[in-house]
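Ticket #4471: structure output looks truncated?

Reporter: J.K.
Steps to reproduce: submitted the chain below (233 residues) through the standard prediction queue, then opened the result file.
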Amino acid sequence: MSQKSIKPSLYHFLTEGIRGVWDRVKSWRYRHNYKKLQKGDGHPVLVIPGLLSNDLTTKPLRTLLEKLGYAVYGWELGINLANLDDVLVLDQTLKRIHKENQAPVTIVGWSLGGLYTRKIARDNIALVRQIITLGSPFRSLEVPGAAMTTLKILYRSNEIPIPPEHKSWIEKIKEPLDVKTTCLYSKRDGIVPWTLCLESIEDDLHQNIEIKSSHTGMVSNLDAIKIIVEKLM
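Returned output as attached by the reporter:
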């Protein structure tokens, strides 16, 4: 598939803002009727935000999961500014959460946060129960429109190369992990090409699921939240 054919449409890009707000509004009733939902098993869940986002943007999802009985954690690093050293902190965060709960951790990563998710999960596979990524373009870092291309642009605009110590994991990020993996993607994504958000294999351990969502609203999208709740049970 050519780069041109997988680039998000101009329409989806220009309407990202309003569609993102609508995604959050549309899921409000579902999120607030939590008493009617089945309770979870209480295992720990770490939620990692996307580029230029923070724990406030993932709060609707985290609040619902807390109401369902899970031990939910934000990333606690402020705004995600694509500082690759954040993965080192997240590695320690994952280990701390596992130690506190004495249970494998589910990691949910949105956009760039999904790439971080795959990195720390690969390095700590025994501590991870499953990973779920939302609109995370881990399949390629070279196609225009991808979040990691945005990361590269940020580095280039400041004339700062991607640090050598991070190049190896970035190159391996697309390789499937030996852990239950769910990749959510949307053909209506106006920020990243949806084809870059798919696992290369699908089997009992790896699954790609299409949802109808904007990119900016994916973490609070009704379809995404329902799938996450289902996968956690």
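Triage note (M.O.): checked the attachment and the full token line is present. Strands lie at 44-48, 71-73, 105-110, 128-134, 180-185, 206-210.
Status: closed, working as intended.
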